[in-house]
Amino acid sequence: MSFSINDGSWYLVSNLDEATSYELFDAVVRGQIRREQVFRDNWRTLSAQVRFRDDALQLKVSRARNNRRWERLLTRFRGSDAVRSFRHLERMSSMGFSAPEPVLAGEQRRAGFVTDSFVCYHYVDGRPAGPEDVPAVLEALRKLHRQGYLRTDAQIANFLIAGDSVVFIDFRLKKPWFLPALQKARELDRFLRSCPDARDALTEKEVSSRWLRVARWLEDLSFGIRRLKRRFREPRKTRNS
Q1: Which residue has the higher pLDDT, 159 or 71?
Q2: What is the value of pTM for the model shown?
Q3: Which residue of 94, 102, 184, 208 sits 20 to 30 Å from the alpha carbon of 50, by its own alpha carbon?
């Protein structure tokens, strides 16, 4: 069971004892934690496998979210992305799904707004899901939908296979309130776009679903609008270069 710590401008949630929590926190914020493998390190995100004592952990810092002005404004009324990720990982476990075990998350506030945050969770030694794993991944996604949740960013790349388990990674839980059947169908359509072979694993009910057809049309429209926006941006970049 996790507990929380308020320490000056930092708020921590942890599954460690208090002394160990502070030790890990200090190593992260001082940049003294050993990085064993860096997956991404840019203006948007720091994602790295790190070593703390004898444990392999995943460290994630959402830099873009911490720096966007409108996202900072939202944190006046809700927790940081890091703390919410910690809670989502806990919730997944409580619902019987496989997901990384959260270790520590922290958020720093100034004048009530989050300005910095991070989350650490146990590194999962699994392999990326492939086409041969589609039936199991689809069933895990269906099970989540039946419990009333979306996972967001439902690409096949965001699932790992560890033993016989389908592990959810890089997700945020969302409970759809408006037209939940359509929102679940849109998430399913996005998964199918990331792995077209998955269409062969759909049930007859899913193949004939009106919601899935509407979702496909909406996703086509969404992607078309994004392409148009990129085309309009390109001439501006050319003129400014």
Answers
A1: 159
A2: 0.86
A3: 94
